[in-house]
Amino acid sequence: MSANRKLTLGVIIGNRDFFPDVLVSEARRDLLQLFRELDIEAVLLDEETTKLGAVETWAHAKRCGELFRAHRDRIDGVLVCLPNFGDEKGVADTIKLSGLRVPVLVQACPDDLEKLQVERRRDAFCGKISVCNNLRQYGIPYSLTRSHTVALLSEEFRADLRAFLAQCRVVGGMRRARIGAVGARPNAFNTTRYSEKILQAAGITVSTLDLSDVFGRAARVKDDDPRVRQRLDEIGGYAAAPQVPGSALSKMAKLAVVLLDWMEQNDLDASAIQCWSSMQENFGVNACTVMSMMSERLMPSACEVDIAGVVAMYALQLASGRPSALVDWNNNYGGDPDKCVFFHCGNWAKTYLPDIQIGTAPILGTTLGEHNTYGAVAGRTPAGPVTFARVSTDDRTGTIRTYVGEGRFTDDPLATFGSRAVVEVPQLQKLLRYICRHGFEHHAAMNAAPVAAILADAFETYLEWPTYAHGLNRD
Known about the structure:
Blueprint: E1 8-13, H1 21-38, E2 41-43, H2 58-70, E3 77-82, H3 88-98, E4 104-108, H4 124-137, E5 143-144, H5 155-175, E6 178-182, H6 196-201, E7 205-209, H7 211-219, H8 226-238, H9 246-265, E8 270-273, H10 278-283, H11 288-296, E9 301-302, H12 307-320, E10 324-333, E11 336-344, E12 357-359, H13 362-368, E13 376-380, E14 384-394, E15 399-410, E16 419-424, H14 428-437, E17 443-447, H15 452-462, E18 467-470
Helix pairs in contact: 2-3, 3-4, 5-12, 5-15, 7-9, 8-9
């Protein structure tokens, strides 16, 4: 699923017939205006099918449920709007009858203290509690606006709705994600083990490609193939490579041709690649540049066949619409308990590395020969927000479990190489204890946008993945 695809929401406008009709008509008008502004498509009853196009009775619920079923392949989420108290059974029955398994947002319009007479009284404050009670009884998961009541055309509700759309992208994207695994995990890394069957049960499909196939296909691509020239031009426009020989750049271009063709043929959203040591020993370059370019194009690519890691990268990308990267929780930052170093050797998207350069991987070069590691990208991430997340398959319990949290990149001094950043996370030591105590991997995914709350709600409320939300107040 594209992080920027236009989304469609099913809309239920609740009503109680002894409240003023004008409130329902105004809500419909405001919602359609808001949807036009935010480029959202709406599926909702027309004003002839039911009274005012609202849902109140069992008959209304059946009509709305039928409408939603007819558009189930289009609907990404459901918005419940309560311009007045609404009818809790009508809302819950509609969603049940629709058969939809999508996120649901419950909104209630606020009363005006100057208009609490019969002509303009809403009582949606109370009705929202009743609707949520019924949704819980029906086993329908749902999300809430930040304030209990919020006006439809307010900036606060616009932010609520944008966050909900991001949740819809994450939930829909995770339930039909297609991930490519290229090569076997490095033998030394048990930490990148994962359960393909547990992922499949959640809707995440993994397709595999052996490195021997990659190398064989790359060997059959001619130097004068127009696709090679195109990829070389793209690499040249992506990052400076002052010390990289032409032969290494040509290998990177052929690797890109093979991987991108395979991903297109299999409709893959993301990939995880065995980036060492066979890549260097048998092909003679690092895959990092190609992986960085794919991540920048919103086709996230993770190191060391970390499939669960790239699932987290993809989820963050769906939430933010921006590239993600895979990082190591790598170093303490002096004696500061709330700061650490994110590092990889590295393949981060250009988004994170304004000073990006293509060079070698010094650490891998110590054993594989530095001349075989051309293709690593290096640079420093500047100050700004960051969300981190990890997805892990737990074979002992047969579940997917996760953690999410937020911090910030800092401009603190850091004299080292590779793809790197200094990160400040409040109560970092508590987080690190949680990671170690619960046996999470040393890899995490990161994204330069504050989307931890969006991810936590999507993971836990809708995907039903146990989630530790570090530092988030979600009560």
